[in-house]
Specification:
Number of helices: 12
CATH architecture of the largest domain: 3-Layer(bba) Sandwich
Number of domains: 2
Radius of gyration: 23 Å
Strand content: 15-25%
Helix content: 25-40%
Number of strands: 21
CATH superfamily of the largest domain: FAD/NAD(P)-binding domain
Mean pLDDT: 95
Low-confidence stretches: none
CATH topology of the largest domain: FAD/NAD(P)-binding domain
Distance between the termini: 16 Å
Largest sheet: 8 strands, mixed
Bound molecules: flavin-adenine dinucleotide
CATH class of the largest domain: Alpha Beta
Structural class: alpha+beta
């Protein structure tokens, strides 16, 4: 029998497996994906948000606990668990030496990244390199890994884990860590969660999935039905406005459209619908998918002019280009008159101060609804560019309720041998909203806790068995 069974093959699962193995446990990791596609959404990541009180290798200045917490409090609108959030924040300041020991290297952000040189440590080679390094280290340490093994069900004795089932296979272990992601790739479940809107549309039918196709939430659903305590609203997620031409799955980072705060965004009727300059883009990009999802036909258009070029990470597909605003409207299939009116109304409302995209500057609109509160400059310099946007789901927030030991709860009581980490419990910290890099902070903190606790519980269980023998 294995000491620790880890279900999932992304960052949270790998952190748990490594910690459990380092603590002396025998570990089996089951990954639903084939080897070539291993690593879940974690393979698409670029960085993790780190608290630090002074400059640290790739991180400049400082990012104290209180500021990190206030950022999280603001984006979640208070729908967060302070004790668990602070635990994640503190863990983010100490995890990088451990990550380095397992082969993860860091680098400063390149230009065009989202104002994050101070707050986020970037992985050298991105999330794919991180995941590969962790797998390599896990294999070297003797973690056994099985690919193409999707776990469908867990056998429980009350709140105790007994075994996991994958088709006809049954895996027994003393303890288990669930780290199988959210349900973002389950289109039926997304449809159910979002329902039908007042226009009779099923918004989720127009969503694209930014990451892996393997996070179907089979295990999450199974655990909730088995009586595990759940947390979070199924319609809440990290949802970004991405290029409407992105593939259904695995478009990754290069389909994100990062020029929203440099221009205006209009819907199918060519009307603006939200403040594009409300706050720094890393604190706002994850609400734009939801905003687009609320528009007719779940589509919107990010409009910029030549002045914005070079100030944001260019997406993989070039935008639609035109020399005049009416021509851009025609090319994008938008009503020409309304489009020109929306842009000229916006241009006339701009009160230009000192434009500074690295600060919450004083370029704002006056008398315009909705306002643009920062970086408002007239869209008046040809060529003009437009990008059609669709909601891109990154990960869902419905998850299993945990305590600071990462234990799964049943009727308010913690299981003593079943733990959960990563997207499957991120909703404890993220009730809504997002701030860049916190997904990996949550997965790393709770993955490491879950692995340590699982190893400890397995050692205790073995002790009990020895005594009984
Ligand atoms: C394009 C993109 C960019 C992102 N960029 C960042 C970033 O820069 N910084 C950041 O902090 N966050 C980022 N995120 C979010 C981040 O990916 C997640 O927060 C984090 O990776 C979650 O880790 P995880 O291990 O919980 O899930 P995942 O990495 O998704 O791993 C889940 C694993 O479970 C496996 N699995 C699923 N179901 C089963 C099953 N039934 N049985 C067995 N295995 C199963 C999957 O195959 C997968 O390996 C990004 C996400 C995307 C999609």
């Amino acid at each position: 029998m294995w000491d620790v069974l880890v279900i999932g093959g992304g960052n949270a699962a790998l952190c748990a497996a490594l910690m459990a193995r380092e603590a002396g446990a025998s570990v089996l990791l089951l990954e639903a994906a084939p080897k070539a596609r291993r690593g879940g959404n974690s393979q698409h990541t670029r960085n993790l948000r780190c608290m630090h009180d002074a400059p640290q290798d790739v991180l400049v200045d400082s990012y104290p606990e209180e500021e990190y917490w206030q950022d999280l409090l603001k984006v979640t609108g208070g729908i967060t668990n302070e004790a668990l959030a602070r635990l994640v924040i503190r863990a983010s300041s100490t995890c990088r030496p451990w990550m380095r020991r397992h082969g993860v290297h860091f680098q400063p952000p390149l230009s065009g990244a989202l104002h994050v040189a101070r707050t986020n440590a970037f992985f050298m080679g991105g999330g794919k390199a991180l995941v590969n390094a962790y797998y390599r280290s896990a294999e070297n340490l003797g973690v056994e890994i099985r690919y193409e093994t999707r776990v469908d069900a867990i056998e429980l004795d009350g709140s105790r884990f007994m075994a996991a089932r994958s088709g006809a296979h049954r895996f027994e272990a003393r303890t288990c860590v669930l780290a199988a992601g959210g349900f973002e790739s389950n289109r039926e479940w997304l449809r159910e969660a979002w329902g039908r809107n007042e226009r009779g549309e099923w918004p989720a039918d127009n969503f694209l999935i930014r990451g892996t196709r393997f996070n179907t939430g089979v295990l999450l659903k199974h655990m909730i039905e088995a009586g595990a305590d759940a947390i979070g609203d199924p319609s809440q997620s990290h949802c970004v406005a991405i290029d409407a031409r992105a593939p259904l799955y695995d478009g990754g980072i290069c389909t994100r459209i990062d020029c929203v705060s440099l221009g205006v965004v209009v819907n199918r009727e060519a009307e603006r619908f939200y403040d594009e300059g409300e706050d720094f883009w890393p604190k706002r990009y994850a609400i734009w998918g939801r905003l687009v999802a609320q528009q007719p036909d779940q589509i919107a258009y990010s409009i910029i002019d030549a002045k914005a070029i070079g100030r944001f990470m260019p997406p993989v597909f070039p935008g639609t280009v035109a020399d005049t605003l009416p021509e851009l409207a025609r090319k994008l299939g938008l009503p020409e008159q309304s489009f020109v009116k929306s842009v000229t109304d916006y241009n006339a409302a701009c009160r230009i101060g000192t434009f500074d995209h690295t600060a919450l500057d004083d370029c704002r609109t006056e008398g315009l609804i909705p306002p643009k509160t920062h970086w408002a400059r007239p869209i008046d310099t040809a060529p003009f560019y437009g990008y059609a946007l669709r909601p891109g789901i990154t990960f869902t927030y419905l998850g299993l309720k945990v305590d600071e030991h990462a234990a799964v709860h049943f009727g308010g009581e913690p299981s003593d041998n079943l733990f959960v980490a990563g997207e499957m419990m991120a909703g404890n910290v993220l009730g809504k909203g997002y701030t860049a890099g916190v997904g990996m902070s949550i997965g790393t903190a709770f993955g490491r806790i879950a692995g340590t606790r699982a190893a400890r519980a397995a050692a205790q269980a073995k002790g009990v068995q020895h005594e009984a023998a």
